[in-house]
Amino acid sequence: MSQQHTPLWEVxxxxxxxxxxxxxxxxxxxxxxLALRNARDLYTRRQEGxxxxxxxxxxxxxxxxxxxxxxxxxxxxxxxxxxxFYEVPEGVAHL
Amino acid sequence: MYGNDFPGEDPPGGLLGEVEAAEAAxxxxxERGRGAIEPSEDLAAYFAExxxxxxxxxxxxxxxxxxxxxxxxxxxxxxHSEIIGMQPEGNWISRAPSLKRKxxxxxxVQDEAGHGLYLYAAAETLGVSRDELVDLLLNGxxxxxxxxxxxxxxxxxxxxxxxxxxxxxxxxxxxxxxCSYGPYAxxxxxxxxxxxxxxxxxxxxxxxxxxxxxxxxxMAQESVDRWWYPSLAMFGPPDGDSTHSAQSMxxxxxxxxxxxxxxxxxxxxxxxxxxxGLHIPDPELRWNEERQAYDFTQPDYDxxxxxxxxxxxxxxxxMEHRRRAHSEGAWVRExxxxxxxxxxxxxxxxx
Lengths: 95, 351
What we know:
The structure holds 2 protein chains of 2 kinds.
Chain A: E1 8-14, E2 22-28, H1 32-43, E3 51-56, H2 68-76
Antiparallel strand pairs in A: 1-2, 1-3
Chain B: H1 14-31, H2 43-52, H3 65-84, H4 86-90, H5 99-124, H6 130-138, H7 156-173, H8 182-210, H9 214-233, H10 245-250, H11 258-276, E1 286-288, E2 293-295, H12 301-311, H13 315-328, H14 330-350
Antiparallel strand pairs in B: 1-2
Pfam family, one (chain A): PaaB
Protein name (chain A): Phenylacetate-CoA oxygenase subunit PaaB
Protein name (chain B): Phenylacetate-CoA oxygenase subunit PaaA
């Protein structure tokens, strides 16, 4: 059946102007144009968005959960990147 | 009384409030600290710890094979139910009593299709394809909720389905917003928010009929009489006979037992029926001061088993219709695929 290989698309919706597009789910469609129309019917029936992105799921590269530790390790020991790391002397304003 | 986080406390705003509370709990749990086990040390212990902390398991996390299989079965059956559930109400679209009612019913049936698609998408994150699941439905190897094997004989049935069937579904589904599997929980939050419109539109239909002419009121009552017990049966067999419950509770896929949810539904409906001025067809229904809950007559579980096994009033009709719709839609899918292939080819030549 031709439908066996209908590609999977990931859908991102911008809820309002000023907000970033957020992943809302996925759907199947033969091409980008239909993916966009299907996304409108499936994910914005109640005015949930003002803009939609559809991305072929096969085009997404994800970090692997197996190497979660080593991959994010470089950030783990750098607490000094957070402002809360620093002690502010008594009485200093606007800092 | 909802969820393990808020013992004895009813979040405001009824069902929608509960969905919002589940959404907030999802966020809060994600920010809470957890034990120190890392996935690289012990996969099973890490899984157990995430579930114990009420955090979510995500698609690429390690999970026990039985957990994956249980979720695929449950989410797929749920998706199939939404798709088959379009039929009983679809039966009344062309005969709705006004343009307003017709537009509302169309929107509702379209929502059911949407719910089916959210759920198939959630199931696909577990490594099964939607086409496989559709095939399992079409060749009868996976089931859908037995409630959709009952016919819609009158317009009042559209109201009774909204009030009782969607009402029972919501009581079943609101706890699923707290399910341990992330994509399922998120799909259910979306579904429950939309279901709330379904339940209210059904209630409004019955309320209008029950306050209309004596004939309209009788039609509403006759419909409630027919849908009451099948709706109670939607919560599944009594706890003693329920095969999958204990493990699903331990995995936090399921949060409450069948009997607990059924009781909750009955307690909700009594007051709503009074406002409708309709009668719940149960002579044994009465308040039990000691239990602080209503005593009621259990549905006929032998009938439930018969319907599940394929011998309800409409099983064959529902499956035939679905198979026909699927095969009659084949040319559309083929044409869209051919068009996409042709366009891709042209772009390749141009590039």
